[in-house]
Specification:
235 residues, alpha+beta, 60s Ribosomal Protein L30, Chain: A, 2 domains, six-stranded mixed sheet, 35% helix, 19% strand
Length: 235
């Protein structure tokens, strides 16, 4: 039996108006994605019967990364001394852990390279004293900015994992579009309560900017909703 769209996540509306046009954001409830899952089969299963021509399918970057084997249990991560040192200087915010623990900083060093992370840390140490924020992540880049650390509200077992950004998200979007007959466009998204980015899609640059505006209030939620897929539908 085809899955049915989920009701709105707590505190989120199913519809939004952007530039005078109304769009439905339809979250699709799924089981928890596990390492080794076939992303294509997973998406095909949980979108069956849920979309129609004209829809845009958005897929959270986290399930793409997990299916690619890019999630790591905290207990299996050995952080080098440099990661311990650098993580102590990361500003903790309500956005989440970020690189504020040795385990996530360790992966920033692995993914971005030690020289780049050291440069980002050195520049940020100076500019932070001048009242400027965000230079560390601007220099370190999206691979560092997108690393997710464990939080209490994350659905298990990923409340004890570090999850990296997915590889080749634009290729993933193109592959899913070809896989799903009748779905015109696919987006791999990194959306949270503080904004978001399109990591890869089959959209034009202008359409990507529109998609960010449509999704900016995080209609999927990011706690225990288990809705890693969603549909944007003009209404």
């Amino acid at each position: 039996m085809a899955p049915v769209p989920s009701p709105a996540n707590e505190g989120k509306a199913l519809e939004v108006v952007v530039d005078g046009r109304r769009y439905a954001r339809i979250p699709l409830k799924t089981r928890v994605v596990m390492p080794g899952d076939d992303l294509d089969a997973f998406v095909r299963e949980y979108t069956a019967g849920a979309y129609r021509p004209g829809d845009w399918l958005f897929v959270t970057e986290k399930i793409v990364a997990i299916s690619q084997g890019r999630s790591y249990p905290m207990a299996e991560i050995t952080a080098r001394p440099l990661a311990h040192t650098l993580s102590r200087y990361v500003t903790k915010t309500s956005h989440g852990i970020g690189l504020g623990i040795p385990e996530t900083m360790e992966f920033a060093l692995r993914e971005c390279g030690t020289p780049r992370i050291l440069l980002a840390a050195a520049v940020a140490a100076v500019t932070k004293r001048l009242g400027r924020k965000g230079d560390f992540y601007r220099i370190a880049g999206p691979a560092a900015r997108g690393i997710d650390g464990p939080t209490a509200h994350t659905i298990p077992p990923y409340n004890s994992h570090v999850v990296l950004v997915p590889e080749r998200p634009r290729e993933v979007a193109a592959r899913l579009k070809a896989l799903l007959e009748g779905i015109p466009e696919v987006l791999v998204v990194d959306i949270n309560d503080f904004g978001g980015n399109i990591l890869g899609s089959t959209l034009s640059a202008g359409e990507e900017r529109l998609a960010v505006r449509i999704l900016r209030d995080n209609p999927l939620g990011q706690k225990h909703e288990s809705t890693p897929l969603g549909i944007i539908r003009p209404v």
